[in-house]
Write a structure and sequence with these properties.
By secondary structure, the protein is of the alpha/beta class. It is built from six helices and eight strands. It has an eight-stranded mixed sheet, with helices on both faces. The model is unreliable at about 5-25 (pLDDT under 50).
Length: about 240
């Protein structure tokens, strides 16, 4: 083997190895769910099971299902408390596991759920980047869903022709959410949209994964923020 070829091969191997290490580091850099064991166990009339797409919370309801997109770099099971609560109250939930924990890489994951399960009414929801991707996905499926719930999130595509309700839910102590882009998002949905600002709530407490960089401190408990969010969703189905 010529000297130049050997040098090229050595450089190529080094680059590939470096990329592999960087990928592993990136893949392991995420917010991990905390204290959620009881929420991913079957109980209270809800069967929780792992499916190819993530987790299925199967409660007593038969006609309504909510598909949930997690926030960026957040372990999907962090949202199990709200999913379990909704399922207990008649709304089956599909908590989607995203590639690399980024909804932007799995924006069409809801298609897989609709292909496999049959419900009269499907709803979309998501947190932060997950909410944005759910909204953008909804903009291309205006006749397939019965509602969209955006938790500390906003759309970036036109949804003004939607014939389903759009509800924005966010905390007044949220310092991660871009308020200017949120205001723009209000103009991209039907004029009868609803917004609920949770007093004392912040960005991270829509899930159970602890504090988030750049966020403010919540003055209510996670459980209180989850309940307000669940109640808001149920009131707008």
């Amino acid at each position: 083997m010529k000297k130049q070829t050997k040098i090229f091969v050595a450089i190529l191997v080094t680059v590939i190895a470096a990329l592999g290490i960087a990928t592993r580091i990136y893949a392991n850099d995420y917010y991990r769910a905390a204290d959620i064991d009881k929420y991913i166990m079957s109980s209270n009339g809800v069967t929780v099971s792992q499916i190819d797409e993530g987790y299925f919370f199967d409660g007593p309801g038969e006609d309504k299902a909510l598909i949930f997109y997690p926030g960026a770099k957040v372990e999907e099971t962090a949202y199990a408390p709200m999913m379990k609560s909704l399922a207990e109250q008649g709304v089956d939930c599909f908590l989607i596991k995203m590639p690399m924990k980024l909804a932007i890489l799995g924006a069409n994951k809801a298609d897989k759920i609709r292909e496999k399960y049959d419900y009269d009414n499907y709803y979309l929801a998501g947190h932060s980047l997950g909410g944005a991707m759910a909204a953008n996905y909804a903009s291309e499926h205006l006749n397939d869903y019965s509602g969209l719930f955006l938790l500390a999130a906003y759309p970036t595509k036109d949804l003004t022709a939607a014939n389903f309700p759009v509800v924005f839910i966010y905390g007044d102590n949220d310092k991660v959410l871009n308020r200017e882009k949120l205001e723009v998002g209000f103009t991209l949905v039907p004029s009868d949209y609803k917004k609920v600002e949770i007093a004392g709530g912040n960005h991270a407490q829509f899930g159970a994964y602890g504090a988030q960089d750049g966020d403010d401190t919540a003055t209510i408990t996670p459980e209180e923020q989850w309940k307000i969010t669940v109640d808001t969703i149920l009131e707008n189905l």
